[in-house]
Every structure is written in structure tokens, then in C-alpha cells.
User: Fold Aminoglycoside phosphotransferase domain-containing protein from Streptomyces graminearus.
Amino acid sequence: MTVTTDLADHRYRALPADLAAVPEVERLLQGLGLGRLLPDRIVSYSGRNDNWSGPTTEGVEVFVKHLGGPTEDAKRRLRNLLAFEELLVTAPQQLSPLRGPRCLGWSEKDLLVAFELVPSAVSGAERADSGDYTQQDAFRVGAAIGTLHGLDRVGRVRLDASSPGLPPVAALTALSLEKHRTASAAELRLWSILQHDEELTAGIRTLRERESLAMQCPVHGDFRLDQLLFAGDVVHLLDFEELRRGDPARDIGAYVGEWLHRAIGKLSGPGRGADAAETAPSAKEMLGRATRELARTRPLIERFREGYGAAGTAPDAALRERSAAFAGWHLIDRVLAQSVQRSTLTPVQRAALGIARTLLVSPAAVTATLGLED
Ligand SMILES: Nc1ncnc2c1ncn2[C@@H]1O[C@H](COP(=O)(O)OP(=O)(O)O)[C@@H](O)[C@H]1O
Ligand SMILES: [Mg+2]
Assistant:
């Protein structure tokens, strides 16, 4: 998928996959009485699945996505997206902080789902990149996630009962033959580092055990900043393909991990000194940059926590610790995603792994530093 940045409206676009090859999209829209997408106006947004957006001949603006990947898994993810619609119905009217784009219809056979297009919106990732993500946004996002976690306490809506695939405990001991064949050199290096670090793998195993004992609630399960869509003052939560009843620490940790990942990403760049452009930053310089970036990030986690508490229950100590540990896993997951098709791990990725290790090995020691408690 080719991604371009459209500076005119700040959206990250992908080249739309040819709709002529996917006549099912038109069939779904026609079946829903929405007409056809106007061919000249079709855009696609950056994401894992193919998607098409734009106005239809009936004058409705739609976002349609096709769930890719193995069919059985795609069906499971479609069921999860639809379960979110059912969950929302259980919300008392005043619980407005949690919103998602309105679902217009779907086809289980063709693995397609259509939503109302949210106009003039930017994703959370775009907002963070442009420096426009405010503390108030952080509060709103915390309130949305806190509301989600408080929904359907009685378990009326049936949610995905499968166990989350990540973090992969088995791969901490050995990689499958298939994975060995297809992984990049950087991925293999990363797995080797993880497998040889007993304290770190014990941290990940402990996290999964604690997670299984935690009180369960509806969780997004795949939170990232690009799963947020901001339209003015309203924030929408997107992409509930991994919605299940699970440990709330997964979503809180992913939020924290997203900001840590961004802060660490800013550690790269040449060092200072005579031939600065040539030199990697010294460890001291890296540490200084990390401290400054963390200071900028912390309020975005504190406000998130306030919003979360305002919408429901403030996290207790055990939840804060698991959240810090899941933030560590999120960092590793991001490095894994970056190392596909790469030959080496960069110094910044190694720095990220070091920080992830601290979070997974000693989560209780870092909750205050992260802003998860005062
Ligand atoms: N209803 C919508 N209106 C406008 N933009 C949307 C809508 N839904 C998703 N998007 C945009 O498309 C991107 C991908 O959507 P998402 O549902 O997260 O798909 P994927 O499963 O491919 O990640 C989002 O990051 C967002 O920018
Ligand atoms: Mg997404």
C-alpha cells in the first residue's frame, strides 16, 4: 500500500485499490440503498485493510473497508466490529464520551463493512504528528476508553472469547519453522534478544498470568493513536476488530506505549559536536533527550488518567502496574512491526527495547514516572 501525506487536509492517504476488482463493494452499497461511490472522488486512508471512502450517487459519504487476511480470522474480526454496535446500545444515553462512526451495513459473505464517513476528521496519529494533540484531547480519549471499560458489566453482549494472541508466550521459547523462514534479519535478532533475556521473558509471562486473573471488561484490544478519529471536539474510537472481554490494562498500556514510542522515536538524529552530522548521539545526550521527551509526554498520560477516572473507575495499583507492563509490551510490538524487512536494529530501537525491559521487569517502579499515578 503506497501512503502519501495530503498536506491540503492533513490526512494520510493510501492509493485506493481498484474498485473494478472488488465489485462486492458496489453490491453492498447498492443493497443498502446508498447508490455507488463516485469514481473520481474515491480516496483511501492508511490502514491494514483495504478501504474506500467518498460520496455516493445518493449523496451519502461513506467509508467501506474489506477485512483481509485468513477468512476465518476475518470473520471473527467482522463479528467483533459488529459487537461494538451492540455494546453501544447498552450504554446509558448520557455516556457520550464514547463514540464510533455509525455503521451503515455489512456483508459477512464478502467481509465488507460500511460506515458513515466522519467529515473533516484527522486521525489521532496525524494530530500527534502535527503537534496538535492537546491535553484536552488526552482527557477525552481517557474518557472514551474509561466509558468503554465500564460498559455492560452484566455481560449481556456476547464478545469474542478467544485469548489475545499477543504477547506471544510460546515464541519466547522458540520460533516456528515458518517464522524462521519468513522473518527479516532484524526480527530474528529481536527474537533472539528476547529469548535470551530470562528476566524479560519472566516479566512477559507474569503479565499474562496477572492478566488472566484480572477483572474483565470490554476492551478495544488493538489501541493505537491511528485508531482515533478527531472531528472538531468529538473523538471517535475506531476499528474494534479485536474487541473482547479482557484486561483493561491492555488499552491503558497501549495508550502509554504509543506516547513512549513517539518520545523514543525523537531520540534519533545526529549528536552535537564538531562533526555533528556524522556522529551518533552519546548515551548522555540520549538520556537528556529521553528525559525531556518524557516530561512532554507525561501530562498527556495524566490527563488521560483523569478522563478515564471521570468516566468510570480510577485504576487501582494492580491495574496501573499491569498497564505499565503492557506499555512495555507495546514498545516491543512497535519495534517488531518496524523490523519487518529490515536487516538491523537501530540504536533507537535498541533504546526502546531497554525501556520496554524496565517496564516489563519492574512495572511498579515506573508507574509514577509515566504519569499513571501522582
Ligand atoms: N468512518 C470513518 N470516517 C473517516 N475516516 C475513517 C473512518 N473510519 C476509518 N477512517 C480512517 O481510515 C483509517 C483506517 O481505518 P481502520 O478502521 O482503523 O482500518 P484498519 O483496520 O485498516 O486499520 C483510520 O486510521 C482513519 O484515518
Ligand atoms: Mg486501524
Remarks:
- Residues 283-311 form the longest helix (29 residues).
- Residues 123-370 form a domain with the Aminoglycoside 3'-phosphotransferase; Chain: A, domain 2 fold (CATH 3.90.1200.10).
- The two ends are 43 Å apart (CA to CA).
- The first strand starts at residue 3 and ends at 6.
